[in-house]
Amino acid sequence: MMNNSMLSDIQCMRTAQFSNFERSFSERQRKINYENLAKIENIASGSNDYTFKRKGNEEQFKHSVKVMEKLRAAINSLSTPDPELSSISSDKQSISELVTHRHKLIKLADSSKLGWKVVEQYETHQLADDSDDEKRIHKAEARAEKLDKEDKRKVVSKNRKRWSPLPQTNYSNEEN
Fold first, then answer.
1. C-alpha–C-alpha distance, residues 62 and 44, integer Å
2. Cβ contact 63:103 at 8 Å
3. Are 67 and 99 contacting, i.e. CB atoms less than 8 angstroms apart?
4. CB atoms within 10 A of CB 79
5. What is the per-residue pLDDT across 77-121, written as a single tens digit (0 to 9) for each?
6. Does this model's pTM top 0.90?
7. What CA–CA distance (Å, rounded) separates 56 from 123?
8. Which stretches are tagged as biased composition: Basic and acidic residues (predicted)?
9. Spatial distance between the Cα atoms of 174 and 9, rounded to a whole number of angstroms
């Protein structure tokens, strides 16, 4: 009797573990399928075909697409019969991080006289830790100023004509 009871308990535990595993696996698979479907919908909507006239608008659009993907994932997690709180919490956290980072970039561009050039340099050279963030901002601003001066120098050099000490004259045989 004891063996049968123990065997029955073990079978119940295995069945419960297996059903938990199955539920977890199907939830993960459903989430992956939903994310892939959202990406396919994004491609099918033609948003990738559009060519932006301004780089800042393109970057803002890309950011908005990322936020929308995360929101869709969070909404999808909530719509399940057994929503996993950890999944919803991580989706919420990633959305918050995306928006906070974008706000930081907008403030950086607004506070600098070179605007989005500084942000571009800041984003391309993210080697330091967050503790060195102030140094990174100053270095990005210096690089942006240097690039701005080089661009202006190129424009000026294209517009300059070479100085000639002698006046140019047209010699033709018809005047003789």
1. 16
2. no
3. yes
4. 9
5. 777 666 667 677 777 778 888 888 888 888 888 888 888 888 887
6. no
7. 13
8. 143-154
9. 116
Closest CA to 28 of 96, 95, 82, 94: 82
Output the six-digit token pair for 130. 């967050």
Residue among 147, 104, 117 at smallest CA distance from 54 = 117
Residue owning tokens 């942000």 = 119
- Whether the CA torsion 143, 94, 25, 31 is positive or negative: it is negative
Could you read off the pLDDT of 3-19 as tens digits, one per residue?
A: 788 888 888 888 988 88
DSSP character string of 36-68: HHHHHHHHHTTTTT---SSHHHHHHHHHHHHHH
- Which one, of 124, 118, 92, lies nearest residue 106 by Cα? 118
Cα dist from 43 to 5, 59, 65, 103, 142, whole Å: 57, 17, 11, 26, 38
Say how far apart CA 108 and CA 100 lie, in whole Å. Answer: 12
